[in-house]
Structure formats: structure tokens, C-alpha cells
């Protein structure tokens, strides 16, 4: 089977209303029809998920949640279980986003969430990324440790086709001018695959998908696709703009 790239739209805590969410989703539905080789995963805020899921959408559009609880069930006020997400038709879950790590999510909690996702048959998108880069390469050790602590102990069968989103925190929520350069992205995605290979075997590394996220916009998507050695994008703010998202999808789709 041909390997498909994926573009994930992380809407975060936007847009403000269901009406706006439907508008954004409508434009995605329109765009998706022209996209052939790429799967599109929309991750809206929880209250918008079900109403959007009920709308018709092309076969290459899927839904994801931005987070799941680390427990399967029980008395956990404010949490949403993986089962609930799965039960309404969600296929994916972002796990360990840096904005959730900043709220106290540790690698240990993230590993629990990954296990819950696998047990529920939700496909996780594991986020990793450093706060800052330094000349001595300490950020690489930091990323390696995140991968090691989040994935070690999970059964190898779950790691087949694992999706890792590399999102350097310093590049998130800015403009394309401040995003990471395609060459640096290339270096880091190679490093991530190497780490996965060392820890879990070459077969797991080869089958893994590495996405890039952090100020992907219409202006830099094409060059990152061309030179960044990526299998897709995790897009924040630009995924809420029809014009921007359209350009990003087209850039990703042109690769193959
Ligand atoms: P931006 O695309 O807004 O930089 O966000 C990236 C991100 O955090 C996606 O998960």
C-alpha cells in the first residue's frame, strides 16, 4: 500500500463558537476533495467534536481529540476518556502536546495515555520537542529522553507505524519566519528516526511517521515538504484559515 502523509489540524481552544467551527470544517471538506495522497485529521475542541463528526465528510478526513484521560474510567472530574472519544467515531488522539506538558503532564503520564490509546484502538500522535536549542546539542538528548520515557515499556506491536510529531516549543505560535528551517527539521527528523531505531529496532523506525509542527504556514510548507524529511504536519493557527490550510494541504499532497 502506498504510504500516505498526514496533516493534523490542532485547533487548540479555537474557534470561539460552534457556528465558526462548522464554517472552518466546511472549508476543510471542500479542500479535501482535491487532496489525493494525504489524510487530514481535524482535532477540534471537545464540545465541537460530535456536531462536526455528524456532518458528511470525504474519506480522507478523520477526527482526533487533543487529549485523553490517563485512566480508562472512573471518577476524574473534567476528564474525557479515550473510550468516549472512540465511541463517537474519533480515530486519533494527540498525546503529550507541549501545551499540556506545560500544565504538568510528565513523560510517565504520557506513556500511560499512550497505553490507554492503544488499548482503546485510538491512534496516538505523540508530541515531542525541546524548549530551546543549544550549540552543544543538549536539545537532542532532551528529545531522545522524551521518546525513551514515553515509549519504553509499551508492547512492540503497538509501536508499528507510530506517529511522532516533532514540535520545537520555541517555534510554536509564531510566523513562518520564525519556524525551524527545513534543513534543521531534516536533521532532527533523522535523529528521531535514529533514536527510535536504537531503542525499538530498525523496522519500527522505518515504519514510523514523523510530523513537523511549529509555525507551519502557507509560505514555508512547500520547502519543509521538499527538504524537511517529514511525513506530514501538525498545524496550529494556520489550520483555522481556509487559505493557509489549503496551501499547506496542497504542499503536503504534492510530495508523492
Ligand atoms: P502553530 O502552528 O500555531 O505554531 O502551532 C503548532 C502546534 O502546537 C500544533 O500542535
TrEMBL record:
<comment type="similarity">
    <text>Belongs to the triosephosphate isomerase family.</text>
</comment>
<dbReference type="GO" id="GO:0019563">
    <property type="term" value="P:glycerol catabolic process"/>
</dbReference>
<dbReference type="GO" id="GO:0006096">
    <property type="term" value="P:glycolytic process"/>
</dbReference>
<comment type="pathway">
    <text>Carbohydrate biosynthesis; gluconeogenesis.</text>
</comment>
<dbReference type="GO" id="GO:0004807">
    <property type="term" value="F:triose-phosphate isomerase activity"/>
</dbReference>
<comment type="pathway">
    <text>Carbohydrate degradation; glycolysis; D-glyceraldehyde 3-phosphate from glycerone phosphate: step 1/1.</text>
</comment>
<dbReference type="InterPro" id="IPR000652">
    <property type="entry name" value="Triosephosphate_isomerase"/>
</dbReference>
<dbReference type="GO" id="GO:0046166">
    <property type="term" value="P:glyceraldehyde-3-phosphate biosynthetic process"/>
</dbReference>
<dbReference type="GO" id="GO:0005829">
    <property type="term" value="C:cytosol"/>
</dbReference>
<dbReference type="Pfam" id="PF00121">
    <property type="entry name" value="TIM"/>
</dbReference>
<dbReference type="GO" id="GO:0006094">
    <property type="term" value="P:gluconeogenesis"/>
</dbReference>
<keyword id="KW-0324">Glycolysis</keyword>
<keyword id="KW-0312">Gluconeogenesis</keyword>
<keyword id="KW-0413">Isomerase</keyword>
<dbReference type="InterPro" id="IPR035990">
    <property type="entry name" value="TIM_sf"/>
</dbReference>
<dbReference type="InterPro" id="IPR013785">
    <property type="entry name" value="Aldolase_TIM"/>
</dbReference>
<keyword id="KW-0963">Cytoplasm</keyword>
<comment type="subunit">
    <text>Homodimer.</text>
</comment>
<protein>
    <recommendedName>
        <fullName>Triosephosphate isomerase</fullName>
        <ecNumber>5.3.1.1</ecNumber>
    </recommendedName>
</protein>
